[in-house]
């Protein structure tokens, strides 16, 4: 049935672009196909595409496009208002269902990303030893930490171990 729907879609597109007798003949073929296979216009047209605007912080742009590509593939067009690129706005031509799915997926993965970023940040600080010299004085053993807290600390420690330690060297100025 899918191949007949795809054929009907192609015929409909030809009919919309056709002129005179060509248009008329294609419309007849389309109607015959629809009657023969009991197709409705909704089966052919599907959900109409429209322009949808997405707003996000500029530093989340890469994540947004990665999420959008999971639904749209790597070949899709983006638009901007008035020909100007607005850093935190993207306009995509999508169906309503696609727009809803992209928004929901982006919100979900942005939350996950931010949670993982906090772990990464803590591991980075620990691995690079970027804390005050007197910070050990205030650290007391915490036996009342939850299992979730202990798991997070272990995750941070494991991540910190895998990071390359970089050393800052003061630059000598020639001025």
Description:
This protein has helices at residues 2-17, 21-36, 41-45, 61-72, 96-128, 135-138, 147-162, and strands at 50-55, 78-79, 89-94. Among the domains are: 2-45, no CATH class; 50-108, no CATH class. It is built from seven helices and three strands. The model has no long low-confidence stretch (mean pLDDT 83). Helices cover 58% and strands 8% of the residues. The chain is elongated, with a radius of gyration of 28 Å.
Question: How would you sum up this structure in a few lines?
Answer:
Helices cover 58% and strands 8% of the residues.
What descriptive keywords fit this protein?
single chain; 175 residues; mainly alpha; three-stranded antiparallel β-sheet; 7 helices; 3 strands; 58% helix; elongated
Shape: elongated
| Residue runs with pLDDT of under 50 for 5 or more positions | none
Strand residue content: 5-15%
Range of helix content? 55-70%
Please write out the topology.
Layout: H1 2-17, H2 21-36, H3 41-45, E1 50-55, H4 61-72, E2 78-79, E3 89-94, H5 96-128, H6 135-138, H7 147-162
Antiparallel strand pairs: 1-3, 2-3
Helix pairs in contact: 1-2, 4-5, 5-7
